[in-house]
Amino acid sequence: MKSKVFQNAQAELFEFLGWPQKKLIKKKKALDYWVPPLVKLHGVYVIGKHQVELKRKAYQKGISFRVLPNDTLSVTTGLATSLKEIHEALSIHWKWIQKQWGMNKTLRTLFVQKKWTEGESFPFVGESKTLNIQFSKTTRFYFDFLDDELRALVPEKFYNKKNLEKLNSALRQFYKREAISYLSSRVDTWASSMGLFPKSVRFRAQNRRWGSCSSRGDVSLNWKIIVFSSEIIDYVLIHELSHLKHMNHSPVFWKLVESFCPNYKKLKVRLKEQNYDSDFLSKSSEIYMQNPGWKS
Ligand SMILES: [Zn+2]
Q: Are strands 127-136 and 149-155 parallel, antiparallel or unpaired?
């Protein structure tokens, strides 16, 4: 869903900057930089840390490149083009390709990160909190939820684009603290009413994996679920606690979930739809546009 939006945004931005999205190779140029080899790993072509999708077409003239929104490098060639020839063409246009990856990264950051403007909204347990910024002369951040506001005391000297990652990381720490406190008490409540007690509860920040439960009875929760509604949060907790009894997704497992969360099916769908809402709490390096599925 979002990756479609992202794709359009990418196209628009590239057009605005006058960058072609597709590169058709014609002439050779001299090389003065190193390009990683094009290798096949477990049946997948890879260059550096990026995946390469190789398409061969009978009527293709030359080689054409395209960097997809998920960073996969798509290469279209004729039927007889050798890997050596492809790598040569890649080498010639390596700088262009790297520029596309850089753009994707920027775009992804723009997409998920908050802009830190007055009145911007931040989700917390299903509520939308309005950002109210105050500036301080110190170097310390202070956050608080007050009624329907997220009050932020921000060091004046960090309030600029250059320090966006610093601002986000301070916010992340605050959210994490709040989340752990809310979720811990929620887990206790559900454990008591379900009569299922985990051996331990750990909080982690995985990317779109909301919770897990080990066979030894250790439950691990993604604290970023704090951005969802209390109903969805409860569903995730009930789901993981139910695994203490059934280590699978069998019909009996779902029966148990249903007995404590009658509309779990609806909540499951809603969770999937709101998948990306927690992305602003991720480090930019953790964001991937692919794999939007939910695992538990
Ligand atoms: Zn599960």
A: parallel
Residue 237: inside a domain: yes
Q: What is the pLDDT of residues 10-50, one digit of tens each?
A: 566 555 555 555 665 555 555 567 889 999 888 889 998 89
Number of domains in the chain: 2
Whether residue 293 is contained in a domain is answered as no
Give residue 74's domain range: 2-112
Rounded distance from Cα 242 to ligand 1 centre (Å): 8
Q: In what order do the strands lie in the sheet with 142-146?
A: 121-124, 127-136, 149-155, 142-146
CB neighbour class for 237 (10 Å; exposed up to 12, middle 13-18, buried from 19) = buried
Whole-model pTM: value is 0.63
Residue 179 alpha carbon to ligand 1 centre in Å: 21
CA of 122 to the centre of ligand 1 (A): 28
Considering the domain architecture, whether residues 167 and 278 belong to the same structural domain is answered as yes
- CATH number for the domain spanning 261: value is 3.30.2010.10
CA of 161 to the centre of ligand 1 (A): 40
289 C-alpha to ligand 1 centroid (Å): 23
By the CB criterion, residues less than 5 angstroms from ion ligand 1 are 296
- Cβ of 166: how many Cβ atoms within 10 Å? 16
Residue 96 domain-assigned (yes or no): yes
Report the separation in Å between the CA atom of 253 and the middle of ligand 1, taken as the mean of its atom positions: 9
The 10s digit of each residue's pLDDT in 171-226 is 999 999 999 999 999 999 999 999 999 999 999 887 668 999 999 999 999 999 99
